[in-house]
Write a structure and sequence with these properties.
mainly alpha; Arc Repressor Mutant, subunit A; 2 domains; 3-stranded mixed sheet; 8 helices; 47% helix
């Protein structure tokens, strides 16, 4: 693997999981995210090369991750709401923002597993629709990332504040 290999969306999911559970081994990351151990390992290598994980300790560089999420995520991994679909609630429609934002429009990851109806957006990675059952805290974090990707200024601000709190960066 070269140091110039670009980040993949799943890498951010791995980083968020490592921020929640720094002791997680590749087997645990694999089980939590529904990816193979080799994918988890490759994600960690890309995160190290990007400076989002600290060398040798594999701990999340929380300030760098926050900076990338707030200022680069929507440009590196854009999402465009599409037609109406049934699916899993995300962005301002999912937890934790749904309790703080009243909106007429809903956003969902298209899936027969979901019970919400709204405009469809593609999740950051294919197995995200399984996260409400597999790893609820990570599901909430991904809904916050979607608010950063597609939200208006207010939603992005609230999502950034909540991510900072979850990454223990809030003042």
């Amino acid at each position: 693997m070269t140091a110039l290999e670009a980040l993949k969306p799943v890498d951010l999911v791995v980083a968020l999981r490592l921020a929640e559970a720094p002791e997680a081994k590749y087997e645990q990351l694999s089980a939590d995210l529904g990816i193979s151990r080799s994918w988890a390992h490759a994600a960690v290598q890309r995160l190290l090369a990007a400076g989002l994980l600290r060398p040798k300790s594999r701990t999340v560089n929380r300030l760098a991750l926050m900076e990338f999420l707030v200022h680069g995520l929507r440009y590196a991994f854009p999402a465009q709401p599409g037609g109406q679909a049934r699916g899993v609630a995300t962005a301002h429609s999912g937890p934790p923002l749904a309790s703080r934002i009243v909106a007429e429009d809903s956003l969902v990851w298209p899936s027969t597993l979901g019970s919400s109806v709204g405009q469809a957006i593609a999740p950051l990675y294919d197995r995200a629709i399984e996260l409400p059952q597999r790893c609820p805290s990570l599901y909430e974090n991904l809904t916050l990332l979607d608010a950063l990707r597609v939200g208006r200024a207010r939603e992005r601000k609230l999502a950034a504040e909540e991510i900072a709190r979850r990454l223990a960066l809030a003042a």
